[in-house]
């Protein structure tokens, strides 16, 4: 019960519920005022205009939100006018409908915010069919009032942001910390759970993608905030928490070890890994609790459990050495020590978040130059040339736009032929659930049908119990608020609430409520079937054939990140910014690859060609970036020796192999500049350097000098990590090249 109450409190304090309330106010206030003054005919178009332009109200830059909403208002007004003017002329209407659907759907090529504007445009097509205006004067008044409604919603949204200026950012930070905590706990399972490692790795792909999406939105929201007087105290706090959350995520990525080496080293010694596993769990839970504190404003949780878990992890290293003795225990001890260093850094960042949330004065400043901050923003290209580049069957969004246009025209023609009462409900179902990928469309179709049936059952029960129109109006409003609040979290519940809202709106206007419910369920089912069938049969876009460009981007980003790490080793002070930018781009590229893999898993089994091969490639890319991050993090956190010639030779060898894999995908000739023999010699020299340092240490121990100073420890760690990880990267790049070649032979050549 206590947990349920806590979750309810988090929901009502969330920005999602806030957006639902904004929509509720924007719809209810003009409706109540104008209805009570006897101007009901003006109330509806204003309410429709507000509803149509609400989707673009998303967290991020306020300027971009305003621009997107203004474009949405103009677009929805234009589309409504065109549909209403062409309604009496069926051939012209069908042509206009097809062109508008295709064009508006293709706007999604400009990114997520543009896709929301696109959805508003598609929604305008559907709602235009529900509007009964025939004369030019009536149509122009309708369109003008819808524009007023859109501006009214924008005003309500801006007023809400003035009253609650940082609620959206706080929610994003909370969601990010929660997801990062989940990811850290999942990493703990990967450490010792060998049987379910593949399953957990697939789960990690999804979490990485979600976290990167949150980071992108937060970059836009926080790094673009720069007033002339500087950031406010609260903005400083949010930025500090955000930067620490990024560092934590990157440390988790860098913490990924060579599991084959770990399994081999600790095959019968798993108990020494358990303290590190438990520490990850404790830190993950602490991050989740901090995410809740951000919303609930409760006192900070005690950090005693964190300190205790860290001490136990440190003790496990000494226990391991005491039991197995040096030099036999050295490799295992270095693995545990490297792992401990990552976890200690993680704890430092968690402590930094705690200090910021506790308003500690020393944590109130953050230094980031304007030009540096702008480089971390992902800028979308808004030129018309982007549209032209996507006018090809090779483009997933081009295929989707054609598919959606055909489905809409078919559904409308079907409604005309069978004289379906509310054809626009079928159209509404299609635009809401139809997505570029078949799997997501099928999943949303199922959720939509189930949600609609649940909503219909609830609505029938209420209609049979009461005939109170005021109650219908109140329930319609509240169900819409909750539906909008749950839309991103639980689509099935949102669909049920939307159905309840629509039924009660019609019940308020039309006493034949049960008939409305019946048609709503039938039309939803028809729309869902059309959407799924169209996605499967009409220019289908199976993810296995869409991976090529995503893989190319991942290879390029990994290669750039590798070279940035090499430059960081040469001169950490002057190459830190370039390294951080390359790391960010690499993580985003891998996130996109993970998202593509998730879409692949949702495709029909018969369309998942070479699934294991693709899973291997995704895993190799992920491990490659983690191994590179591990080297980069060590360099950034320690005073290292100068990069050796052997290090540069092996980096060149790995880079060439990645380029060869890239050449296979792009079908360009390759040039091998570093021979395998030369790279093997460099690898042996690095291994020998580690063995030399280990031998010196062993001689010191024999002479009774068992005290290990920090400089010697770091030298051993550096030699072990560099030689081990470079050898690992060579192996990973070779395997990736081999997998890419097989992918090219088995999939791309039969496309």
From TrEMBL:
Its main location: membrane. It holds the Pfam family FUSC_2. Residues 411-533 form the Integral membrane bound transporter domain. It comes from the Bacteria. It is a multi-pass membrane protein. It is found in: Cell membrane. InterPro entries: Memb_transporter_dom, YccS_N. Residues 80-342 form the Integral membrane protein YccS N-terminal domain. The chain crosses the membrane at residues 20-53, 65-85, 91-109, 116-133, 139-160, 448-464, 470-487, 494-511, 517-539. Keywords: Cell membrane, Membrane, Transmembrane, Transmembrane helix. The keyword NAD does not apply. Belongs to the YccS/YhfK family. PANTHER family: MULTIDRUG RESISTANCE PROTEIN MDTO, P-HYDROXYBENZOIC ACID EFFLUX PUMP SUBUNIT-RELATED. This is FUSC family protein. It comes from Psychroflexus longus.
């Amino acid at each position: 019960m206590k947990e349920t109450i806590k979750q309810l409190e988090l929901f009502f304090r969330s920005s999602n519920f806030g957006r639902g309330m904004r929509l509720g106010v924007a719809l209810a206030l003009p409706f109540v005022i104008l209805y009570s003054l006897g101007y009901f005919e003006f109330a509806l178009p204003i309410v429709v205009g507000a509803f149509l332009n609400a989707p673009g109200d998303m967290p991020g830059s306020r300027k971009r939100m305003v621009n997107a909403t203004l474009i949405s208002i103009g677009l929805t007004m234009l589309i409504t006018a065109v549909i209403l003017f062409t309604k009496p002329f069926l051939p012209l209407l069908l042509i206009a409908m097809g062109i508008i659907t295709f064009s508006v759907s293709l706007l999604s090529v400009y990114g997520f915010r543009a896709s929301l504007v696109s959805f508003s445009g598609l929604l305008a097509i559907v709602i235009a069919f529900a509007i009964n205006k025939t004369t030019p004067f009536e149509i122009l008044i309708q369109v003008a009032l819808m524009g007023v409604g859109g501006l009214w919603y924008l005003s309500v949204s801006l007023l809400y942001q003035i009253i609650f200026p940082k609620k959206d950012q706080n929610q994003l930070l909370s969601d990010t910390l929660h997801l990062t905590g989940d990811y850290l706990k999942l990493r703990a399972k990967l450490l010792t759970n060998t049987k379910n490692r593949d399953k957990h790795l697939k789960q990690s792909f999804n979490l990485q993608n979600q976290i990167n999406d949150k980071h992108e939105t937060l970059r836009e929201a926080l790094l673009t905030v720069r007033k002339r007087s500087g950031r406010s105290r609260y903005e400083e706090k949010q930025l500090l928490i955000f930067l620490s959350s990024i560092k934590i995520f990157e440390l988790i990525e860098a913490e990924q070890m060579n599991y084959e080496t770990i399994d081999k080293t600790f095959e019968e010694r798993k108990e020494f890994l358990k303290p590190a596993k438990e520490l990850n769990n404790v830190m993950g839970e602490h991050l989740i609790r901090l995410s809740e504190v951000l919303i609930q404003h409760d006192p900070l949780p005690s950090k005693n459990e964190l300190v205790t878990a860290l001490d136990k992890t440190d003790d496990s290293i000494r226990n391991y050495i005491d039991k197995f003795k040096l030099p036999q225990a050295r490799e295992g001890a270095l693995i545990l020590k490297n792992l401990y260093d990552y976890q200690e850094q993680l704890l430092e960042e968690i402590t930094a978040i705690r200090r910021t949330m506790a308003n500690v004065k020393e944590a109130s400043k953050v230094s980031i130059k304007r030009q540096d901050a702008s480089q971390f923003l992902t800028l979308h290209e808004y030129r018309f040339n982007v549209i032209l580049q996507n006018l090809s069957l090779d483009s997933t969004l081009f295929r989707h736009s054609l598919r959606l246009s055909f489905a809409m025209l078919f559904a409308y023609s079907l409604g005309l032929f069978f004289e379906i009462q509310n054809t626009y409900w079928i159209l509404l179902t299609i635009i809401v659930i139809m997505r570029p990928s078949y799997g997501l469309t099928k999943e949303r179709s199922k959720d939509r049908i189930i949600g609609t049936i649940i909503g219909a059952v609830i609505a029938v029960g209420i209609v049979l119990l009461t005939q109170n129109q005021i109650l219908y109006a109140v329930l319609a409003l509240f169900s819409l608020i909750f539906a909008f609040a749950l839309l991103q979290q639980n689509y099935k519940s949102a669909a049920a609430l939307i159905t309840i809202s629509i039924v009660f709106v019609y019940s308020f206007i039309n006493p034949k409520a049960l008939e409305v419910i019946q048609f709503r369920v039938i039309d939803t089912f028809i729309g869902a079937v059309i959407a799924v069938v169209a996605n499967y049969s009409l220019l289908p876009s199976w993810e296995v054939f869409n991976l090529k460009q995503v893989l190319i981007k991942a290879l390029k980003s990994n290669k750039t990140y590798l070279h940035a790490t090499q430059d960081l080793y040469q001169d950490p002070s002057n190459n830190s910014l370039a390294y951080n930018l390359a790391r960010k781009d690499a993580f985003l590229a891998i996130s996109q690859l993970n998202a593509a893999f998730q879409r692949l898993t949702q495709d029909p089994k018969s369309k998942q060609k070479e699934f294991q091969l693709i899973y291997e490639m995704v895993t190799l890319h992920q491990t490659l970036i983690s191994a590179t991050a591990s080297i980069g993090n060590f360099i950034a956190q320690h005073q290292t020796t100068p990069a050796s010639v052997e290090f540069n030779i092996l980096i060149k060898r790995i880079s060439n192999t990645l380029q060869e894999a890239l050449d296979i995908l792009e079908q360009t000739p390759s040039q091998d500049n570093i021979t395998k023999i030369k790279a093997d010699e460099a690898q042996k020299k690095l291994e020998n350097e580690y063995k030399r340092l280990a031998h010196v240490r062993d001689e010191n121990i024999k002479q009774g000098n068992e005290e290990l100073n920090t400089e010697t420890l770091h030298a051993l760690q550096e030699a072990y990590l560099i030689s081990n990880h470079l050898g690992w990267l060579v192996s990973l790049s070779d395997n990736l090249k081999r997998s890419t070649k097989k992918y090219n032979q088995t999939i791309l050549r039969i496309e």
